[in-house]
Amino acid sequence: MSTKKFIYLNRKAPYGTVYALESLEVVLIAAAFEQDVSLAFIDDGVYQIIKGQNTDGIGMKNFSKTYHALGDYDVNKIYVSAESLEERGLSVDDLMPLTYEDEDDDWAEKTSIKIISNVQLTKIMSEQDVCLSF
Amino acid sequence: MVNLGDWNKEIAVEMAQSDDIELSEEHWDVINFLRDYFEEYQIAPAVRVLTKAIGKQFGKEKGNSKYLYSLFPYGPGKQGCRFAGLPKPTGCI
């Protein structure tokens, strides 16, 4: 099977619309088909991977645990916009620790999250075959 | 099955019997793994992920699709998840 470079841009808050959950599902499907998958979290999308999510009051499924499975699917390029974090008064410590095990380094656990500037993100997007925005 | 909470071991045995499978300890290793994975991540793992994880947990000789298909001839994802009372894995065809 041919492999393409996919990046999924996540720009919306996790609940209230179905975009975040739908994005996560297609990410897992693309990864199951062994594509080269990257994720970017921009704008309110950064709230999708924030720690301590609780949906008790809104009657929606809390799917935040599923982001921890991304490493198992070899999705280990998770870019987060530094500007978007800063605008919301957030830092990397407010995000869930998403990790993967590096097969080439004796299965050492490494972080998948990279905080990058919007300029760097533009460059990464230009290197992709497919760019999908949610 | 409609409700995840309705599952129990007898249901799994019953479902397997109607597929002409008698559940062995090896079957239960996979079924329990699938249920634990779902509990932790809220999804059933794709076959590729399952294969890798089974190999890591139960030994390399079991971490291949040939072994898993020998246990679940209709597919470890589709049939295994059905016995485990879980939805089909995301990306399962």
Task: Give descriptors for this structure.
heterodimer, A: alpha/beta, Hypothetical Protein Ychn, Chain: A, 7 strands, B: 93 residues, mainly alpha, Arc Repressor Mutant, subunit A, globular
How is the secondary structure organized here?
The complex is a heterodimer of chains A (134) and B (93).
Chain A: E1 5-10, H1 19-32, E2 36-41, E3 77-81, H2 82-87, E4 99-102, E5 108-111, E6 113-116, H3 118-126, E7 130-133
Parallel strand pairs in A: 1-2, 1-7, 2-3, 3-6
Antiparallel strand pairs in A: 4-5
Chain B: H1 9-18, H2 25-41, H3 47-58, H4 65-71, H5 76-83
Helix pairs in contact in B: 2-5
What does this structure look like?
The complex is a heterodimer of chains A (about 130) and B (about 90). Chain A has about 130 residues and is α/β, with parallel strands linked by helices. Chain A has one domain: Hypothetical Protein Ychn, Chain: A (3-Layer(aba) Sandwich). Helix content of chain A is about 20%, strand content about 25%. Chain A is built from 3 helices and 7 strands. Chain A has helices at about 20-30, 80-85, 120-125; strands spanning about 5-10, 35-40, 75-80, 100, 110, 115, 130-134. In chain A, the strands form 2 sheets. In chain A, strands 6-3-2-1-7 form a 5-stranded parallel beta sheet. In chain A, strands 4-5 form a two-stranded antiparallel ribbon. In chain A, a hairpin with a 5-residue loop joins β4 (about 100) and β5. The two termini of chain A are about 25 Å apart. The model of chain A has no long low-confidence stretch (mean pLDDT about 95). Chain B is mainly α and about 90 residues long. Chain B has a single domain, classed as Arc Repressor Mutant, subunit A, CATH 1.10.10.370. In chain B, about 60% of the residues lie in helices and about 0% in strands. Chain B has helices at about 10-20, 25-40, 45-60, 65-70, 75-85. In chain B, α2 (about 25-40) packs across α5. Chain B starts with 8 loop residues before the first helix and ends in a 10-residue tail after the last helix. At the A-B interface, α1 of A face α3 of B.
